[in-house]
Amino acid sequence: MEGIELFLVATNSIGFICVCSGILRFLKWVWGMWLRPAKNLKQYGSWAIISGSTDGIGKAMGFELASEGLNLVLVGRNPLKLEGTRKEIRDRHDVEVKLVVIDMQKVEGEEIAKRVEEAIDGLDVGLLVNSAGLAYPYARFFHEVDSELMDGIIKVNLEGPTWITKAVLPTMINKKKGAILNIGSGSTVVLPSYPLVTLYAATKAYLAMFSRCISLEYKQQGIDVQCQVPLFVSTKMSKMKTSVFVPTAEKYSKTCRRWIGYEKVVQPYYLHSVQGFFIRSIPDAFVDSYLLRYFLYWRRRGQSKYSNINPLPSPNSFSQHPHSTTN
Ligand SMILES: NC(=O)c1ccc[n+]([C@@H]2O[C@H](COP(=O)([O-])OP(=O)(O)OC[C@H]3O[C@@H](n4cnc5c(N)ncnc54)[C@H](OP(=O)(O)O)[C@@H]3O)[C@@H](O)[C@H]2O)c1
Description:
It is built from nine helices and seven strands. By secondary structure, it is of the alpha/beta class. The protein has a seven-stranded parallel beta sheet, with helices on both faces.
């Protein structure tokens, strides 16, 4: 009898602890998502530098930050798009905007860092947003990834943010304050795998680990590093229509901005978090099997659509493709 009582007390206690920790996690989520005051970004510095600033999330972030009075250094590969973005921002907001032309696919890492260092020399840069990114035009097996696409994804998603961060950090260390925001991917934290989009997902996993590590390295220097891991956002990259689970870049950037300076890895849009919660509660084997079938389907669709294009489309022709496999 004593044994049964002990067993009941132990299981009840474990259950109680589990429920309490679940409630605490939920309250922390509500606090972070809606109640916690956003950090005053101007306290980090009066300038922000954004890569991938000519489209999607990066561009929307540019408007968001300019609306708070931050001056901007916009990094992009296309001088005309950069100039257009500057004009749009300056038409709406009274801020200074500097432009830096870098095609991360073509420029070597050290040269990227040099150009960024020159551009921010003498500026009070407090925030870096690494948003530039490249995805597959459509899903494919790893051995089918042509060398141009492979090189592009590694350079834009991995080398680019690494070298830009290296270029910006000394300014922040000198001031003993700063914030770095890397835009990763939900595939890193929500999904057990991301088959047929392997390289993209792997570069984003790198970005999450990179952010976690440097966050610890530079916390004592007053620098807050964060990797945001959104699920789908309606942009040129995702080619997805807006829906409750797929916010516009503008909507995403508003929620994204609220989280800057806090946790190391976050999913700022609340419906992405909800999606992530349910996906994580499904056994990995089911998710893996579903994802494999899903991406095999997209591979077939992509192949039949581009069957008359040989070899496989290059990353530069990416923007013309109807479905990319981001996340
Ligand atoms: N959209 C989503 O569903 C989603 C989900 C998870 C994570 N993400 C991540 O969020 C970030 C932003 O994505 P997005 O959806 O906003 O994509 P997007 O609309 O395609 O914008 C990508 C940006 O990166 C720039 N870029 C691409 N290649 C470049 C290169 N070689 N050199 C310099 N800049 C380059 C683009 O320049 P151009 O304007 O010249 O093309 C553009 O400004 C990416 O890192 C992506 O992986 C997106």
